[in-house]
Design brief:
Blueprint lengths: L1 E6 L3 H12 L4 E7 L2 H11 L3 E4 L8 H9 L9 E5 L4 H9 L4 E4 L4 H12 L4 E2 L1 H8 L16 H11 L4 H8 L3 H15 L4 H10 L5
Parallel strand pairs: 1-2, 1-3, 3-4, 4-5, 5-6
Organism: Actinoplanes nipponensis
Pfam families: GerE, Response_reg
GO molecular function: DNA binding
Length: 212
Amino acid sequence: MIRVMIADDQAMVRTGFGMIIGAQPDMELIGEAADGVEAVAMVRRLKPDVALFDIRMPRMDGLEALRLLAGPGVADPIKVVVVTTFDLDEYVHQALRNGAAGFLLKDSGPALLVEAVRAAVSGDALISPSITVRLLEHLSPPAPTGDDGGLSPRELDVVKLAARGLTNAEIATQLFISVGTVKTHLGSVQTKLGARNRVEIAAWAWERRLVG
């Protein structure tokens, strides 16, 4: 079972997400928090497989809570998917830098929410397709051209597709390779780039304008 925890200051949102999670045969809801301070304490106590965090919460916002649980230097980072109504550039950028294992808009629908949880558990990261291009392409000024991070041409192919929000299975189909080969390439890419997860790989690609 995938153990999921939810942090959102709106009770209706927590209830709705809880119903979606509870309807999945391989998931269970283990806790709910109404603010960031409570969320951090609960995650550290319950150790969920995935936590769903809103951004704007009382006492401590979701981005700061995310940084404490999954940010740079955290020894045992928790997989946190940010689920919010606010798709501002600065929020996405900070969420990626703070170790988010996904970024979804609340209107993405139940199917995408469930997919994001499963993606986080498997080491993937799902970003709402509606915001991937519009936001990530503005992350930061372009890096010097020719910066390929030491990646092979095939690894770059995989990175470009991952940065567009494709799943491992979709990448495999596009490149006519197996899912296992995609995972091997992504593992190699993480090592070469020093990226902690798929989202940081996507951010690296967008920052270098590798994705059109």
